[in-house]
């Protein structure tokens, strides 16, 4: 990530600690949703359980990052780009923590639908999972590199994710209609799709914060990033 030089090296170190903690949390959240999607696709129950078990670690990282931000604001009274870094970090950690929760939801639904033979994961659901992972990765790379242009492109990607979510949902509804014995599994998988789609929404939130952090431009609720 881009660094803001300071004569006060201790202050600079505190800013770097926030950046590092934020990226660590992003890597953990991305790993959780990646593992949850993988567990769903290959019915790996052990991997699904591991996603549930590591959520506490992500929660701990959120608390630690919040504390770094609050302490710096109280002690240093940052302004300008430094203040944007801290305020954005406080918002981004909330999105990352929620992504972890959504990964846990996917993992738990995987445990439900993988218990015995039945409905396989349709290709539309696999495509949705792949797109969401790519979207989240792009948002985190934009955060790491402080790339506002890449962050702005996330809105178009999210439209594609929304369209894939609709296709996956429609496919599962057809499966439930044509195969009533698979209704409960299909219903659980629609919940998986909804959770994946929400991950995409949080990725866009992160991208919006990157634009604000880099440019000082508020793009939330705007038609375009």
Topology:
Elements: H1 9-42, H2 45-53, H3 55-76, H4 80-113, H5 123-145, H6 148-152, H7 154-178, H8 183-215
Helix content: over 70%
Main sheet record: none
CATH first level: Mainly Alpha
Strand content: under 5%
Distance between the termini: 20 Å
Q: How large is the radius of gyration?
A: 19 Å
Number of helices: 8
Indicate the overall shape: elongated
Give a written overview of the molecule.
It is a single chain. The chain is mainly α. The chain has a single domain, classed as Methane Monooxygenase Hydroxylase, Chain G, domain 1, CATH 1.20.58. Helices cover about 80% and strands about 0% of the residues. The chain contains eight helices and no strands. The protein has helices at about 10-40, 45-55, 55-75, 80-115, 125-145, 150, 155-180, 185-215. Helix 1 (about 10-40) runs antiparallel to helix 5 (about 125-145). The chain is elongated. The mean pLDDT is about 90.
Descriptors:
mainly alpha, 8 helices, 225 residues, Methane Monooxygenase Hydroxylase, Chain G, domain 1, elongated
In short:
This protein has a single domain, classed as Methane Monooxygenase Hydroxylase, Chain G, domain 1.
């Amino acid at each position: 990530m881009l660094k803001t030089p300071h004569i006060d090296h201790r202050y600079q170190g505190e800013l770097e600690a926030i950046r590092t903690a934020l990226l660590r949390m992003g890597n953990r959240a991305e790993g959780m949703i990646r593992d949850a999607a993988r567990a769903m696709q290959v019915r790996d129950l052990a991997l699904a359980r591991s996603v549930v078990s590591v959520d506490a670690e992500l929660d701990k990282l959120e608390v630690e990052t919040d504390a770094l931000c609050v302490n710096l604001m109280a002690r240093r009274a940052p302004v300008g780009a430094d203040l944007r870094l801290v305020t954005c970090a406080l918002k981004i950690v909330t999105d990352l923590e929620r992504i972890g929760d959504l990964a846990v939801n996917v993992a738990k639904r995987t445990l439900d639908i993988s218990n015995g033979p039945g409905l396989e994961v349709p290709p539309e659901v696999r495509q949705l999972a792949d797109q969401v992972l790519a979207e989240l990765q792009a948002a985190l790379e934009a955060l790491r590199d402080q790339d506002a242009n890449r962050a702005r492109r996330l809105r178009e990607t999210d439209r594609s994710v929304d369209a894939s979510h609709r296709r996956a949902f429609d496919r599962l509804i057809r499966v439930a209609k044509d195969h009533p014995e698979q209704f409960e599994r299909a219903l659980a998988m629609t919940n998986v799709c909804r959770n994946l789609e929400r991950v995409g929404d949080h990725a866009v939130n992160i991208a919006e914060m990157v634009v604000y952090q880099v440019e000082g431009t508020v793009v939330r609720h705007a038609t375009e990033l």
